[in-house]
Design brief:
Number of strands: 15
Structural class: alpha/beta
Number of helices: 7
Largest sheet: 5 strands, parallel
CATH architecture of the largest domain: 3-Layer(aba) Sandwich
Radius of gyration: 19 Å
Helix content: 25-40%
Strand content: 25-35%
Length: 234
């Protein structure tokens, strides 16, 4: 995994770089002294993983995340001296949140999560996935066929999901990420860390909420801009 460090503290960057050098699957590419430097770097380069500080002059690490498009956003491990940003950070789907000082055991724990995300990201989508018309799911010990066109949205429940159609709900032992990987990317969008929604079933979007009929689905702040693109807003 290619990685970069974004931190305005040179000593912190140096200490973290020494830890990174002990991890075989990491390939250190760049260190940036500010979020702006990192943003500019990403305009010309791609990377798999950010080690990102939060409190920096000019722009915070969280503001940087929000300014990166979903396509350009790498896997992110936040490293900070403060704990109060944790809730907002995980709303942005970061891999982990480490409070300084960083130790090797704590870093390895975070990297295990990041590696799982990276490995799933690298899995190729089946060439004919966009042509799928149905899926089979195991719900209550029964294999049930569900037409993809009938799925309105999917809700995460830990290691389970609820799959909703207009008139039924199926509880299935699979993660939301697993469902996302098995559905056509042009028809479904993850607009919140806990929800995957069928774009064709969205009736309206109002005040940070998407509606399927009268049912409200929250939109995560970091997903709003991309959702509007997918809805062909004019």
């Amino acid at each position: 995994m290619n990685c970069i460090i974004v931190d305005d503290n040179k000593m912190a960057r140096t200490a973290l770089k020494k830890l990174i050098e002990q991890v075989d699957f990491l390939n250190f590419k760049q260190e940036c002294a500010s979020p702006v430097d990192a943003f500019n770097y990403l305009q010309e380069n791609s990377t798999d993983l950010f080690f990102l500080d939060i409190e920096m002059p000019g722009m915070t690490g969280i503001e940087l995340i929000k300014n990166l498009s979903i396509e350009k956003r790498p896997i992110i491990i936040l490293i900070t001296s403060k704990t109060e940003y944790a809730v907002e950070a995980f709303e942005l789907n970061v891999a982990d949140y480490i409070v300084k000082p960083v130790t090797l055991p704590r870093l390895l724990t975070a990297l295990a999560k990041a590696k799982d995300l990276f490995d799933n990201k690298e899995k190729k989508i089946e060439p004919n996935q966009k042509d799928k018309e149905y899926i089979f799911v195991r719900s209550n010990a029964v294999l049930t066929k569900i037409k993809i066109i009938e799925i309105t949205y999917i809700q995460a429940l830990g290691d389970y999901v609820n799959i909703f159609t207009a008139d039924k709900r199926y509880t299935v032992h699979i993660t939301l990420k697993g469902m996302e990987d098995n559905l056509p990317v042009e028809k479904f969008y993850r607009l919140h860390r806990s929800y995957l929604i069928a774009l064709d079933h969205i009736d309206k979007v109002e005040e940070g909420t998407a509606f399927i009929g009268k049912h409200p689905i929250p939109i995560g702040e970091q997903f709003k801009k991309e959702l509007l693109k997918k809805l062909n807003l004019i």
